[in-house]
Write a structure and sequence with these properties.
Order of helices and strands: EHEHEEHEHEHEHEHHEHEEHE
Number of strands: 12
Number of helices: 10
CATH class of the largest domain: Alpha Beta
Distance between the termini: 37 Å
Shape: flat
Strand content: 15-25%
CATH topology of the largest domain: Cobalt-precorrin-4 Transmethylase, domain 1
CATH architecture of the largest domain: 3-Layer(aba) Sandwich
């Protein structure tokens, strides 16, 4: 993104009528596009039902749409019958889950985001080298469970600076860290700094684990939020990256709301507001953004403009067996 410190909009108090501004980029990333396409192609080629372990991505609209096409979402592999088609979600799975599926009569397609897979590979490599691994992430998140499950032992989870202070690894001079891909860049930096202060010899990834899409969407909110008096983030409550977008705006002193759809917009939020910023998490489709703009227009916010920002061109290949015929 160009100079994030240079405002491109007129001051809010000069606006003659309320307006909405759209963050760029927003919404689907390449990993989410790929995951959804994997389920859709599996349905086309092998027929319904296609079983998906956990939500393919954290968005209620996407899950409902795929369920309507014949996807069945399950929490345990025991819910998948023999001979069925199974898709691993974009968040990734542990080695134990992968091994269990491999020991069954199942047709398996892996929709794990390639950037998450990169972290999995790094964890396995670090453990082979004898390093203990510190993972920075949110307990209970499917991506964290999958990454932690790449090692049988020697991996520790921290979420905050306080967690770092409570950490007691067996070998303080042979450590490395990895991160969940959808964290707040700023919050993650604080935890990384705490790790480096406490364990000066800790090894870091050659390239940061927080994905390009998470970084870009957070940067877009940092650019947009100071120029708005309300920021609306479209995303499901379970979506880590969507929650982080809301937090980024709030930490900049702006009122910010996370909503799953236009139906959740409370008209009272717009009272006294002149410029409303709109963005969407990486698992939220653009159709939800457009529906929100229509809802805003019905409430008097008829002027819309899109801000400048990064245009993403990343694409990830589909798994073997689902590519172009």
């Amino acid at each position: 993104m160009s100079d994030l410190n240079t405002p491109t909009l007129s001051p809010i108090d000069e606006l003659q009528q309320p307006e909405a501004v759209l963050a760029q980029p927003r919404g689907f990333c390449a990993g989410v596009d790929r995951a959804i396409e994997i389920v859709e192609r599996a349905l086309e080629r092998h027929g319904a039902p296609v079983y998906v372990r956990h939500e393919i991505v954290h968005n209620d609209h996407v899950v409902r749409d795929l369920r309507g096409k014949g996807a069945v979402f399950v929490d345990e592999l025991t819910d998948v019958p023999e001979g069925a088609t199974l898709v691993f979600s974009a968040h990734g799975v542990s080695r134990a889950v992968r091994n269990e599926a491999g020991g069954r009569d199942l047709r398996v397609f892996d929709a794990t985001c390639p950037l998450v897979t990169k972290v999995h590979v790094e964890v396995a490599k670090l453990r082979r080298e004898g390093r203990e691994v510190i993972m920075i992430g949110h307990a209970g998140h499917p991506e964290v469970e999958g990454t932690m499950g790449q090692a049988d032992d020697g991996i520790h989870l921290v979420e905050t600076v306080d967690d770092v202070e409570q950490l007691h690894p067996a070998q303080v001079d042979h450590l490395a860290y990895v991160t969940q891909t959808t964290l707040s860049v700023d919050d993650c930096r604080a935890v990384i700094d705490a790790l480096k202060r406490r364990f000066p010899l800790i090894s870091e990834p050659k390239k940061q684990d927080i994905c390009y899409a998470t970084q870009n969407r957070q940067d877009a909110v940092k650019f947009m939020a100071p120029q708005c008096d309300l920021v609306l983030v479209i995303g499901s409550p379970t979506s880590s990256n969507s929650n982080r977008l809301r937090e980024v705006a709030q930490k900049m002193g702006k009122e910010a709301r996370l909503i799953g759809s236009a139906d959740e917009l409370d008209p009272s939020w717009l009272e006294g507001k002149r410029r409303i910023g709109v963005t969407a998490g990486a698992s939220a489709p653009e159709v939800l953004v457009q529906a929100l703009l229509e809802r805003l227009a019905s409430l008097g916010v008829t002027h819309v403009r899109q801000l400048e920002g990064i245009v993403e061109h990343v694409q990830f290949p589909l798994p073997k067996g689902l590519g172009s015929a």
